[in-house]
Structures are given as C-alpha cells and as structure tokens.
Amino acid sequence: MSFSVFQLHPHIHTAVQKCGYTVPTPIQQQAIPPVLAGRDLLGLAQTGTGKTAAFVLPTLHRLLDGPRKSVRALIVAPTRELAEQIHGYIEKMAQHTTLRSAVIYGGVSKKAQAAKIRAGVEIVVACPGRLLDHMNDRAINLSQVEILILDEADHMFDKGFLPDIRRILKSVPSQRQSLVFSATMPKEIRRLAEDILRNPATVQINHTQAAPSISHALIPVEQKRKTELLKNILENKGMTSTLVFTKTKYKAKNVAQQLENFGYRATSLQGNLSQNKRQEALYGFKSGAFTILVATDIAARGIDVSGISHVINYDVPDTAEAYTHRTGRTGRAACTGEAFTFMTAADDKMITLIEQTIGKKIQRETISDFHFDNQDIEAALAAKKVQGRSRPQKEMTAGAAQRKRTPTATPGRRTFTKR
Ligand code: AMP
Predict the structure, then answer these.
(1) Residue nearest to atom 13 of ligand 1 (CA)
(2) Angle at 325 between CA 321 and CA 327, to 5 degrees
(3) Is the pLDDT assigned to residue 371 strictly greater than 70?
(4) Which residue ranges form the domains of the chain, and what is each CATH number?
(5) Would you tell me the crossing angle of helices 162-169 and 187-196 to the nearest 10 degrees?
(6) What percentage of the chain exceeds 70 in pLDDT?
(7) For residues 56 and 351, what is the distance between their CA atoms, to the nearest angstrom?
(8) How many angstroms is it from 103 CA to the middle of ligand 1?
(9) 81: Cβ below 6 Å to ligand 1?
C-alpha cells in the first residue's frame, strides 16, 4: 500500500514524499480514509505508531477548501512537548499550502501566542490550561472550529485536564468532526469519547504490544547500585542515544547530574524545569549535543526523537502501558533498539504484569559485577527478620552477601552473561 491510495491533495502528498514516508503505518491505513470522509474517529494507539500523520494529513486535506484566518481545526494535547511536536509536524506537512498553525501552552508569554492567533491561523494546537486562559481573555474564537482532535486523552485524564476539556467543548460548535486518540481506555475516557464522538470509526493498533524491532532485557540489581550499573552498561553496550526513565523528578535530575559528573553528555527532562530549560534539554538531545536524557514518564510523553538506540528503565514503571510507551521510544520506524530494565525484588509483580501484557517473557541478563537475584533479597530479608529478633547487629546487605560468595570481578573487566 502506498500513500497515493488516499488521494491526498498534491500539495500534501508532496510533503509526505519529502518526509521519506513510502508505506502508511497500520493506523494511517485504517484512520486516514474515514477521517477524509468526514467521520468521527476513536483511535486506540500510542506514540510511535504514526498516529500524528494519521490525523494531521486528512485534517490538512479537509481544510484546504474553505476560508482562511479563522480557527477551523483545534488539536488539544496534554503536554507542551507533544503540542510542539504536532505543531512542527503540521508546519512540515502544510509547507506547500497556505494553511497556518499556532501552538499555545503555558510557561511562556501569552502575548506572542495571542499575536499569532490575531494574525490569522486555521489550526491551533493547544494545551488545555493556556487555551482556557486565551479563551477567558477573548484572544481566541473557537466558533468556527470544524475539526476537534484530542490527542493522548488518557494522559489528559491522568493530568486532571478532563474538566478543562469539558469547558473547552462548550465553546466549539456541536456540528463538527471529532477525533479522539488514546493509548488506553479507562472508563473516564470511554465516557468522554461517548460524549464527544458521533458514530465514530474505531481503530485499534496493538496498543499493548511492544514493537517487534525492540529487544528487551531485565537486569536484576540492588536498588542502591543502580547508578553504578547504569554507568557500566553505558560503557559497554555501544549506546549512541539513550533515554533513561526514573520514577521521580528528583531522581531524574540527580541521576543526570551524576552522569554529567562522570563525564557523560547527560541532561534531564522533568516537570520542575522552566520551559526554556525543557526545550534546551529536548533540543540538545535531539541534536546529539546530549547523548543521554534522563526523564520521568510525564516529561517524556510525546518525545519524538528518531534514532534512540537504547531505553533504560532505571526504575520499573508503575503500569504495563507505561512500559510499552517507554520502550516504544526506541526501535521506531525502520530502526531497531534495545530496552533494559533494572529490576529489584520489589518489582516482581509488575514485571509479571508487563510480561503478560506484552505477551512474552523478557530475557534476564546478568552482568557479572552486579550478579544478584531475587533469592538473594529474599534470603537477606529472612536473615534480617531472624537477626532482628535475636541480635540487633548490622547485617550484611543482600548485595554484600552475594559479593562475598562470588569471587570479586576484575576491576574494569565487564562481562555479560545470559541466564
Ligand atoms: P508518531 O506516532 O506520530 O509520534 O510517529 C512516530 C514516528 O514515525 C515519527 O518519527 C514519524 O515521523 C514516523 N512516521 C510516521 N509515519 C510514518 C510512515 N508512514 N513511514 C515512516 N515513518 C513514519
């Protein structure tokens, strides 16, 4: 199948070709025809599937006919990074047309955004909070919106944006085309989709399946040795561009700082940064100025950086969906990638859930200096209980116990063995 089957306007088709796309991805194959036909759509797909093109291309095609300088398509996204990414993509795909897009989100001045809207745009990509600000200021008129798109609806719900979305919905015409994209379908999103969509086409793209181009490995490690392990595998795995995920903002900052101190070109992307610092981190990673980006799940949503060779789960994510989201950052389009997950004894249950969700057992990989497994932790915990009752002395940690049992590895020599 090629893009020509969609019969997109030649101006848009040329941009698609310039981008180097030859074959539409499954979501594009299934979503573009109904959207071109004017139907509402529920798209169950995560970032990395090509969903942006799946809604941008038919939207541009439909907007080509019709007036200019009024907001005719509104795309709402949960994060500034995702909004920027969609806006950038629209600019690329609309480069041969007279359609214009503006992006609006908080953390930067409202003035420039209001000026751009006033100058006249047909497409607005917005985060909910700042969009409401502009609506309150009467700086934006949504009464001419023909197409409404909610991207990453489940993430909007996670971030508490649903009341804002419902407020925004009151300002757009009820006669419109609506598209809702979500990686998962919690009941709140199902209800929202039912309220918004009229007889939608539904497209579901293996949203819980990990991409086949990614190889996965679990590395058991003691919590306190994770940074050491990270350094070890950064040195030994031929990593060119690595995205590291931590559970908290503090840890993201701290781990990036430690890597920087070790001489790595590392930076962090987490919610405590100012907008300028976030952009700096993201652009620095995209341009290759930083080879390692340490991020939290929320900050990393919507990151579109091609050529990420490795994803490292420094901390196991809280949900199986987050695992597929994270690991989907590598192995995109035609590339392959590797995902390593650092696993402590506390992660057993979540790992089982992840394996059930992705439908396969993840290979365990033991790195000799770090040899450690769950039985060690259980043994150490049992010993702790006994010692706690009999003699209150400082007991050996599980890792220390293990290191005592195994001959010390030669410093600097790193070997990788598979269990
Ligand atoms: P998305 O899921 O929209 O974030 O897209 C993921 C990545 O796939 C982006 O880097 C897109 O540029 C790329 N992409 C989207 N559609 C195609 C396609 N048909 N062929 C090759 N790459 C694509």
Answers:
(1) 50
(2) 115
(3) no
(4) 3-205 (3.40.50.300), 214-373 (3.40.50.300)
(5) 0
(6) 84
(7) 36
(8) 20
(9) no
Segment among 141-145, 364-368, 400-404, 408-412 with least mean pLDDT: 408-412
Distance (Å, whole) CA 235 – CA 293: 16
Q: Write out the two tokens for 241.
A: 């561009």
Mean pLDDT of the chain: 84
Q: How many whole angstroms separate alpha carbon 249 and alpha carbon 299?
A: 9
Contact assessment for residue 265 and residue 290, using Cβ atoms and an 8 Å cutoff: yes
pLDDT for 307 equals 73
User: HEC string of 122-154?
Assistant: CEEEECHHHHHHHHHCCCCCCCCCCEEEECCHH
Bridge-partner residues for 187, per DSSP? none
Q: Parallel, antiparallel, or unpaired for β 363-367 and 416-418? A: antiparallel
Long-range contacts of 252-261 (CB under 8 A, 24+ apart): 252/294, 252/295, 252/296, 252/299, 253/294, 255/227, 255/230, 255/294, 255/314, 256/292, 256/293, 256/294, 258/227, 259/230, 259/231, 259/234, 259/292, 259/294
Q: How far is the CA of 11 from the centre of ligand 1 (A)?
A: 19
User: Which of 352-386 are b and which e, b meaning 16 or more Cβ less than 10 Å from the residue's Cβ?
Assistant: eebbebbeeebeebbbebbbbbbebbeebeeeeee
Confidence label for 373 from pLDDT (cuts 50, 70 and 90): low
54/24 Cα distance (integer angstroms): 9
Distance CA 347, CA 247 (A): 13
Rounded distance between C-alpha atoms, residue 177 and residue 187, angstroms: 22
Residue 88 Cβ contacting ligand 1 at under 6 Å: no
Quick: pLDDT tens for 25-73.
889 999 999 999 999 999 998 777 889 999 999 999 999 999 999 999 9
Token pair belonging to 212: 């086949």
Distance 406 CA to ligand 1 centre (A): 47
Ligand 1 neighbourhood includes 304 CB (under 6 angstroms): yes
3-state SS class at 219: strand
Q: Which helix (H) or strand (E) holds 379?
A: helix 374-390
What is the per-residue pLDDT across 244-303, written as a single tens digit (0 to 9) for each?
A: 999 999 999 999 999 999 999 999 998 888 878 888 888 888 888 899 999 998 777 766
Q: Is 87 in the pocket of ligand 1 (CB under 6 A)?
A: no
